[in-house]
Amino acid sequence: MNKSLDYLNDINILKIYIRILQIRIRRFDHFHYLERIKYDNEIRRYLIKELVGSLDLNNERIGMLAFSRFVADEDFPWLVDQITNETDVLLQNKWVEIIIRHFRINDPSHVQLIHNAMQESNILNENFSRLFNSISLDSNEARAAKKEYYRNLKIEKKLEERERKVSAASLHEKIKNRVKEIYSGNVDAWRLLCIEAGLDTGKDTLKELINDEIRDSIVQCSKIYLLDEESNPEEGLIKNSPFATYIALRLLYEYDYQFLIQIPFERWHNWSPVVLLKWTDEDDIIRTELLSMAYERVPDSIISDLLVILSKENAQNSDLYILRNLEKCWDERLGQALFDWLKSNDLQLRTKQSLTEYLLHHSVTGVEEHVISVIDKDICSSDDIEKKNALISLAALCSHFEGGLKIAWSFIEDNDNLFKKLMLMISGNGSFKIKINKLDEKILADLYIKLVLQFPYEEDPNLMMKKWLILLALGNMWLILEMIS
Fold first, then answer.
1. Taking all residues of the chain, what is their mean pLDDT, rounded to a whole number?
2. How much is the pTM?
3. How far is CA 484 from CA 27, 365, 425, 433, in A?
4. For the segment 298-313, what is each residue's pLDDT rounded down to a tens digit?
5. 385 φψ region: left (φ > 0), alpha (ψ -120 to 50), beta (else)
6. Closest CA to 395 of 429, 357, 365, 442
7. How confident is residue 36, by pLDDT bands cut at 50, 70 and 90?
8. What is the number of other CB atoms lying within 10 angstroms of the CB of residue 1?
9. What phi-psi label fits residue 14: left (phi over 0), alpha (psi between -120 and 50 degrees) or beta?
10. Domain boundaries of the chain, sorted by first residue
11. How far apart (Å, rounded) are the C-alpha atoms in residues 320 and 309?
12. In sequence order, what are the residues at sequence separation of 6 or more whose Cβ sits closer than 8 angstroms to the Cβ of residue 326?
């Protein structure tokens, strides 16, 4: 399902995807496997909007959607915007059901958003006005509200007390026993300590549950483990087992950075695959910093291990998300190594597109010329794969290279079919911007005319399909193309 997200501009794929989501929402799916939806607000919200607009989604199923993990807490302001901009009464009723279930009366930002939106939305006013109406303090309504408030407060206190008691004492005892084992020479106990202390979740359990004395003991154990362990880089890449090594590195980064930077450089060779792989969802910033430290110390190991990981990603025809964490590592050596790997391997199309975009974004020497040569060679090919390869190269050039659209214009000016495919590809995931400070007025005018002709309004009178919104902001020298529902 992750790969299908790149093809939602295809109406048939979109319909199938929405149908699958409806089925899984009814089964209370947590969607933990859709990592991209979790972090990409734009794609998630686009799909939520499609789900709400589906005729198959009745009020009961709207409730399931509202309570599902698919709708995130940070979506609340966006949900309010949807209802204030919606004119269809049926859709308004669906949006308000989701908003009611996500509204947090104890969250001032939620209360302020709803209060402001009520001025513009009758349906929100109908459902939330009672929260803002004045009532007499000695009325039955006031007494009932007070009783409800104290009842909820009592429940919250009980829950907090229960969480505090979730065997804090027994947890401390377990940790102390593991610490003793590690001090006595059983370094393997570090892995068990990580699990029992909850360090493998990515949350800062040390701050939440553990006093300074125990925290210092755990940090000391992480040092013992790192200086003793002899991790196998190849094992790390294939078995995904040395999460304990990563946790030890992370703890030292947070609690004893001075010790970490003094560790001999040669030890980082073994830790290269460990910091490259993703172990938790919570600490991408620390992971990026650890990668930067590793690259400064053992750049050759990072590059060689990275290429092994990229080969695995290529086998799955995946986006190369791992490159996002290498922003602080980018230099000529890394860029050239990735460029050589691009040229010397027959990569799958999605992987090739992702890597080409990164290389163009970082202006790696020679990439522009290589991409243009690929387009020249394959754009008129009779082979579908080669034509697709040329198209993704053209899209990468437009989206990630200044002046790319001007270069692409010579290929798409007289080829309406190619033009339409290109525009759909570079706009398929939402809004994007193309710098046009090198475009002359004639190309700009021709582009505008071509877009209007290729995406006419009359083909989509009910706004059920995507349509183009074209804004020409000549003052800022930007052409902004957005796809809206």
1. 78
2. 0.58
3. 30, 36, 15, 15
4. 999 999 999 998 998 8
5. alpha
6. 357
7. confident
8. 13
9. alpha
10. 3-131, 166-297, 314-400, 402-485
11. 10
12. 291, 295, 306, 334
